């Protein structure tokens, strides 16, 4: 692993422990940045990402070529999870935070779930008319797909988001490294130095530690990770986390719940008619 540039320790973003730099890397092809590693939290992070405004001139990085496939497969996994683990039969409300251009929200509504979009930095293109409104009541669960790695303070984000959405369950995705073995800079493309957008990284052990700090349970479920204040049935999590099982479970849920495409078209038409009146 390449040595880090000499730098003072900084407080771990999760536990406050003085944390040395693990390595340094060049971000956005011009900023030499130390990446710190807290062994107690099994967490790699950047302390002062001063370039974020520059990194987010566009919400979606050009090199994120798997955005469409990721949303499709994530929607199938989420539908299987909501139907099997949470037992939702169309009565619940869900919110996708950091929802990008709204593709996942649209897919989830197509699969029958009452899903809403929220993102402070992107424009809702695919799920227009279904922005989240906290006044509409508590959320059964909140999803945050490829969000945590973008955050200077993931713990504060989770607390604030669950409080705002009045939910006790967060379902999210992020790539994880092997417990206790943060990858070398050249060995893990997920650092994404060229985009400058990824600044926080976890192992499963680190996510379990973070969940405990939040007073929640951590459930790894394949590509999904779940924080919940509820005890969830692990055998159902196992079913929903296996892609060969998740696909038929998602399609079963869609068949029973019914797609919201037609209903949503009517709702949006009424919204537009009301706005023009």
TrEMBL record:
Pfam families: Methyltransf_23. GO terms for molecular function: methyltransferase activity. Its EC number is 2.1.1.-. Keywords: Methyltransferase, Transferase. One of its GO terms (biological process) is methylation. This is Class I SAM-dependent methyltransferase. The keyword Magnesium does not apply. InterPro entries: SAM-dependent_MTases_sf. Gene3D superfamilies: Vaccinia Virus protein VP39.
């Amino acid at each position: 692993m390449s040595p880090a540039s000499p730098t003072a320790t900084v407080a771990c973003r999760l536990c406050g422990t003085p944390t040395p730099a693990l390595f340094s890397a060049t971000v956005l092809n011009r900023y030499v940045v130390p990446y710190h590693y807290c062994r107690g939290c099994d967490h790699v992070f950047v302390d002062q990402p001063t370039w974020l405004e520059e990194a987010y001139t566009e919400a979606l990085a050009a090199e994120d070529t798997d955005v469409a496939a990721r949303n499709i497969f994530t929607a199938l996994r989420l539908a299987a999870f909501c139907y099997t683990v949470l037992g939702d039969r169309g009565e619940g409300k869900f919110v996708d935070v950091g929802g990008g251009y709204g593709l996942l929200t649209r897919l989830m509504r197509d699969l029958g779930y009452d899903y809403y979009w929220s993102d402070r930095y992107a424009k809702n293109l695919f799920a227009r008319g279904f922005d989240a409104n906290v006044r509409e009541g508590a959320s059964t669960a909140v999803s945050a797909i490829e969000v945590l790695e973008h955050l200077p303070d993931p713990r504060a984000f989770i607390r604030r988001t669950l409080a705002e959405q009045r939910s006790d369950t967060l379902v999210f995705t992020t790539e994880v490294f092997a417990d206790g073995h943060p990858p070398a800079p050249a060995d893990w493309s997920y650092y994404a130095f060229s985009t400058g957008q990824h600044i926080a990284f976890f192992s499963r052990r680190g996510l379990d530690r973070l969940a405990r700090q939040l007073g929640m349970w951590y459930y790894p479920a394949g590509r999904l990770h779940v924080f919940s204040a509820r005890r969830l049935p692990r055998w159902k999590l196992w079913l929903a986390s296996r892609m060969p099982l998740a696909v038929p479970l998602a399609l079963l849920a869609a068949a029973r719940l019914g797609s919201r495409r037609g209903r949503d078209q009517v709702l949006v038409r009424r919204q537009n008619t009301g706005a023009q009146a």
